[in-house]
């Protein structure tokens, strides 16, 4: 599992191995629009302020994935212990 700090809402949530970030945020009352939930539409794109993203989407180019400024929170995960998101 990993932690997601949501700077705009001032909340930190824990995402378990079988959960998606977008679902955990929704359960915490932090709503982010999502559509495909498969990493193909881009609706759930969120800015990343800190942490290393495990990108699992099909939208971002390799360069964009490496830059790590944004992520699709329906499918992508955390490759460090904590992500800080602009949400
Ligand atoms: Fe479509 Fe996340 S909801 S990419």
Question: How would you describe the overall organization of this protein?
Answer:
It comes from Streptomyces laurentii. Keywords: 2Fe-2S, Flavoprotein, Iron, Iron-sulfur, Metal-binding, Oxidoreductase. This protein is α+β, with helices and mostly antiparallel strands and 87 residues long. The protein contains two helices and seven strands, in the order E-E-H-E-E-H-E-E-E. A five-stranded mixed β-sheet has the order 2-1-7-3-5. A two-stranded antiparallel ribbon has the order 4-6. The longest helix is centred in the N-terminal third of the chain and has 7 residues. It is globular, with a radius of gyration of 11 Å. The mean pLDDT is 98. The structure holds FE2/S2 (inorganic) cluster (FES). FE2/S2 (inorganic) cluster binds next to loops.
Give the topology.
Layout: E1 2-6, E2 11-15, H1 21-27, E3 45-50, E4 53-54, H2 62-67, E5 70-72, E6 77-78, E7 82-85
Concise structural overview:
This protein is of the alpha+beta class and 87 residues long.
Question: Could you list some keywords that capture this structure?
Answer:
single chain, 87 residues, alpha+beta, 5-stranded mixed beta sheet, two-stranded antiparallel sheet, 7 strands, 15% helix, 31% strand, globular, binds FE2/S2 (inorganic) cluster
């Amino acid at each position: 599992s990993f932690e997601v700090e949501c700077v705009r809402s001032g909340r930190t949530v824990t995402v378990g191995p079988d959960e998606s970030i977008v679902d955990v945020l929704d359960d915490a009352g932090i709503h982010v629009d999502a559509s495909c939930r498969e990493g193909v539409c881009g609706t759930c794109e969120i800015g990343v302020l800190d942490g290393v993203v495990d990108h699992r989407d099909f939208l971002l180019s390799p360069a964009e994935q490496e830059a790590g400024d944004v992520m699709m929170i329906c499918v992508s995960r955390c490759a460090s212990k904590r992500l800080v998101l602009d949400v």
